[in-house]
Amino acid sequence: MALDRPRALSGIQPTAGSFHLGNYLGAIRQYVALQETHDAFYTVVDLHAITVPQDPAELRANSRLAAAQLLASGLDPDRCTLFIQSHVPEHAQLGWVMNCLTGFGEASRMTQFKDKSAKQGADRATVGLFTYPILQVADILLYQANHVPVGEDQRQHIELTRDLADRFNGRFGETFTVPAPYIVKETGKIYDLQDPTIKMSKSASTPKGIVNLLDEPKVSAKKIKSAVTDLETEIRFDEEKKPGISNLLTIYSTLTGTAIPELERRYEGKGYGALKTELSEILVEWVTPFRERTQEYLADPGTLDKILAKGAEKARAVAAETLALAYDKVGFLPAKP
Ligand code: ATP
Ligand code: MG
């Protein structure tokens, strides 16, 4: 990996067994593309997962499953660094420093926290959920990342990361690269199939609203066919007036590489049924080999664990160097003089 390449960093939570279509189109597709142009680090963020209760056995299984799905999506351990967040203790260590640099009011303004804590009842939300955007700041800054491929919902957290990098650099001297979000406009927000005004989400979507990549393809095909649309018949991209159809067009366009105006022309005079049926077939064709590849990685946990151990080693080399620099700037006494 050439050192003159810009760095990329992103993370995905092992909070559900399967990734969903929003994760893939909004984030993971970009992870795969950036391997070619960036020195890229991708992490399964298990520390973030425990901000809400997790069953330990399930968490362990989901972490392997997340890694298997990332590899099945096209991440290549020879071209990027793939690791489990808890294998690199520097994340929690720099996270603490960043906690001490963040204002309470500033953290309180994070809308992801507001949404997620409202869902659980504010009393039951953990302090970890409150501070998780700050741990995310550490995740990114440890790798001196230039670009952070994420979905639109993460924009505010990347803003916070930029603010904290600037604040640290201003107070202690140039230390961290100030990262930029890498959000693809067209796919930055894939919507729930049953409520096309909210994002498709592991934690917020109803089963019918979310396309899980590891579900039986038949099940996903049915969900596409029963997606909520509108009372018109015209197939036209109009996010405001026709959010359901626009969402289906976005998914169709991205999975096939066909521009949306071309799809509008192709479906002129045809009903919503035709679009949904053909999209469901395209989806089945795409998820079938994806599921097979995921199963292959899972069937060989020894190899999977080796990939992750090697990834953690590569990640630690970078993270340890950044942490040492940050600790020194803050004024911590060196452990080894
Ligand atoms: P949760 O609801 O538990 O937060 P999630 O569905 O948001 O889960 P994450 O693991 O938090 O999934 O997010 C992984 C990546 O996928 C992030 O970069 C996030 O921005 C992106 N992402 C999540 N949902 C969507 C979506 N509907 N459209 C586009 N990108 C998305
Ligand atoms: Mg999320």
Task: Provide a compact summary of the structure.
The chain is mainly α.
What does this molecule look like?
The longest helix has 30 residues, at 301-330. Helix 4 (90-99) runs parallel beside helix 13 and helix 9 (217-225) packs antiparallel against helix 12. The chain has helices at 21-34, 46-49, 56-73, 90-99, 104-108, 111-120, 127-141, 155-172, 217-225, 243-256, 260-266, 272-298, 301-330; strands spanning 7-12, 39-44, 81-84, 147-149, 180-182. The mean pLDDT is 96. Helix 8 (155-172) links the parallel strand 4 (147-149) and strand 5. Strands 1-2-3 form a 3-stranded parallel beta sheet. A two-stranded parallel ribbon has the order 4-5. With 337 residues, the protein is mainly alpha-helical. The protein is built from 13 helices and 5 strands. It binds adenosine-5'-triphosphate and magnesium ion. The site of adenosine-5'-triphosphate (ATP) has 20 residues, from helix 1.
